[in-house]
Specification:
Number of strands: 5
Distance between the termini: 90 Å
CATH architecture of the largest domain: Roll
Oligomer: single chain
Strand order of the largest sheet: 4-3-2-1-5
Length: about 110
């Protein structure tokens, strides 16, 4: 009387509804990651690559290390940046992080 009898349950059919219910959260999480993280990062990389390709002599730039200067020479992989009168440094092209508007260095 205290213990009730246990009966075996029928096995589920494992239909496509169960598969869809289990896969839907994973697909939703991937879509959220794509639109919030992957896509903006790809767009930012594309803009940076276009900025690097458009560098010209005389542009005012900021390097990844925070050094501001004017581009004096451009090679295939390196850029020579003049940071003061007669002081030039060589940095890799991808180390240029920002292109400044003309005249910005005079106001510093």
């Amino acid at each position: 009387m205290l213990i009730s009898p246990a009966y075996a349950q029928a096995a589920s059919s494992g239909g496509t509804g169960d598969l869809l219910a289990t896969m839907l959260p994973m697909v939703a999480i991937f879509a959220i990651f794509y639109f919030l993280m992957i896509r903006p990062q790809q767009r930012k990389q594309k803009e940076h690559r276009a900025m690097i390709d458009a560098l010209e002599k005389g542009n005012e730039v900021v390097t990844a290390g925070g050094i501001a200067g004017r581009v004096s020479k451009i090679d295939d992989q390196y850029v020579t940046v003049e940071i003061a009168q007669g002081v030039e440094i060589h940095v890799q092209r991808h180390a240029v992080s920002q292109l400044l508007p003309k005249g910005t260095l005079k106001s510093l």
